[in-house]
Amino acid sequence: MRQASSKRFLLGLTVAVMTALVFMVATPSSSATTLGPNGEALTLTITPVNSTTFTVTLTIDTSVASFTLPGSFINAGGVKISSSATGSSQLTVFNGATNVSGMFTFQAGGINASGCSGSGAGFVCSGANAGQGSYNATGGVMTFSWTITTGAGGANAIDSVKVEYVNANGQKVGAIVSQFVPPGSAPPPVPEPGTLGLLGTGLVGIAGLVRRRFRS
């Protein structure tokens, strides 16, 4: 009887340990949406890779009824998640389901009337290459994704987005979006592999001690 009870206990402990590890390894993210000054819907999603590296996605929805610049083009999109960004790169740019990454050039810094400005601590920007085309026309959803590495403080909730629109001649139209996006649920840092290893070793040790106790 005691042996059967021990096996049931060990089985339950194993399930609990595996569940805890799955939840710790799962990558959390935060996401928030706000309306910009031209009526666009702006969604900022931040997913931690580790404690100082994040995948950041800006979604610009100009298909909403509130959008006030029909016939325009998205010339540049940018974000800031920390004033201490130490390195970053463009991952992808999508217009709807079409990958248009090759039509945009990455640059550190914010946005002004000419597109990516090259200045502004913590900002990253992807600007359209010379010439306009259907790849960045409004009336749909455009999604920018970057990898951003920060200082030791990580993402510090200074979540800001920038967007610039131009007409078919490349001239700025409407307001340059410079919008604070209220943070969603703050993403906790992803545990380092060493931390997970120590946790797993400790839990296995506890299980061994319990097993020996039931045997004695």
Explain this structure to me?
The chain starts with a helix and ends with a helix. The strands form three sheets. It has a six-stranded antiparallel beta sheet with strand order 1-2-3-11-5-6, with no helix packed on it. A five-stranded antiparallel beta sheet has the order 7-10-4-12-13, with no helix packed on it. Helix 1 packs antiparallel against helix 2. The protein has a domain at 30-180: Immunoglobulin-like (Sandwich), CATH 2.60.40. Strand 1 and strand 2 form a beta hairpin. With 216 residues, the protein is of the alpha+beta class. The protein has helices spanning 2-25, 193-215, and strands at residues 30-35, 41-48, 53-61, 73-80, 87-95, 98-99, 104-108, 111-112, 115-116, 123-128, 141-149, 160-166, 172-180. The chain contains two helices and 13 strands.
Q: How is the secondary structure organized here?
A:
Layout: H1 2-25, E1 30-35, E2 41-48, E3 53-61, E4 73-80, E5 87-95, E6 98-99, E7 104-108, E8 111-112, E9 115-116, E10 123-128, E11 141-149, E12 160-166, E13 172-180, H2 193-215
Antiparallel strand pairs: 1-2, 2-3, 3-11, 4-10, 4-12, 5-6, 5-11, 7-10, 8-9, 12-13
